[in-house]
Amino acid sequence: MKITLAYGGGGEETNKLINDLFYKNFKNDILVSAEDAAVISADGKLAFTTDSFTVSPLFFNGGDIGKLSIAGTCNDVAMMGGKPEFLTCGFMIEEGLSFDELERIVKSMSEELKKVGAKIVAGDTKVVPAGSVDKIFINTSGIGRVLKDNISAHNLKPGDKIIVSRDIGRHGTVIMAHRYGVDTDLKSDCKVLWDEVKALIDEGIDIKVMRDATRGGVSAVLNEWSKASSVGIEIEEDKIPVSDEVMGLCEIFGFEPMDLANEGTFLVAVSSEDAKKAEKVLKRFNDKASIIGEVVEGERVVLVSPWGTKRVIELPKGELLPRIC
Ligand code: MG
To answer: Under a CB-based contact definition with an 8 Å cutoff, are residues 38 and 30 in contact?
Structure first.
């Protein structure tokens, strides 16, 4: 069965899609009450974000556009110390997408939501004529209560340590391999990071800033932080965890792992007293978690080789690989 334009027409077919697919998989009281807007109660500070997902291919090793659309938005809420709670989602579907593929995507979204205990409380579906979008694009917005305040890219001070939560460059490498038809067992790191963040908060770690290293990779995050806090950052090259598979594929394609997108990997900066403890907490989730460098006086991001030579890491330029997320 294929999705036709009628499924976006607001009539009988649309209702069928909503009832048989979306309500069934995203079931919760707020959504199925089917009002014009979700009414939620909240007090205290909230983190609120939105992101659109256009990844190609739709299904990749370690995930799919559905899982990505939940992880991506939940992670941005989590990076601000917020527990992802309520999401909205908008589907833009190209006529002709198979119902089975849409169902796989929706089921995968539902699974990922369950892991973090978040709910989709409002949604929208549009079906557009063939050629207007490529198969399916998804937008999700997310909101969550902030459990740890004052996390900001402007907080960095010389002496703070930078920790990466796991080995880098997986998502970008997997998408690249699929695009170029290279066979690989490598899996995307795509996942919701709330458990890791909650553990850091629960252990009382002095978190200065967190950011998931999505488009632009670790290089982009470090450059954004350096600029926002007007500080330099020194990274020790041999401390950066990169898997052999990512390293190998990057050599073939001529990419730099630090520039490649991740979808379940984050950087956190903490005070130097808390660095070892924070690294230990993150190692519970992935043993590749590692302190990779520190904040220094200055204004550049510098990579220090094991021989002591230094190289400036710039913000990645241009579009390395479109439609990665
Ligand atoms: Mg982010």
So the answer is: yes
Q: What separation in Å is there between the alpha carbon of 325 and the centre of ligand 1?
A: 12
In the predicted model, what is the mean pLDDT of residues 212-226?
97
Whole-angstrom Cα distance, residue 140 to residue 122? 10
**Ligand 1 center–CA 129 separation, angstroms:** 32
What are the domain boundaries of the chain? 5-146, 161-312
Topology classification of domain 161-312: Phosphoribosyl-aminoimidazole Synthetase; Chain A, domain 2 (3.90.650)
Å from CA of 211 to ligand 1 middle: 6
Residue 108 CA to ligand 1 center (angstroms) comes to 21
Supply the DSSP string of 139-188, one letter for each residue.
EEEEEEEESS----TT---TT-EEEESS---HHHHHHHHHHTT-------
pTM as predicted:
0.97
The larger pLDDT score, comparing residue 57 to residue 42, is at: 57
DSSP string, 91-131: EEEETT-BHHHHHHHHHHHHHHHHHHT-EEEEEEEEEE-TT
CATH for the stretch 5-146: 3.30.1330.10
Confidence grade of residue 9 (pLDDT, cut at 50, 70, 90): confident
Query: How far does the centroid of ligand 1 lie from the alpha carbon of residue 7, in Å?
Result: 33
What does R_g of the chain's alpha carbons equal in angstroms?
A: 20
Q: How many A from CA of 98 to the centre of ligand 1?
A: 31
| Local structure of residue 64 (DSSP, 8 states) | E
Task: Give the pLDDT confidence of 231-287 residue by residue, as tens digits.
Answer: 999 999 999 999 999 999 999 989 999 999 999 999 999 999 999 999 999 999 999
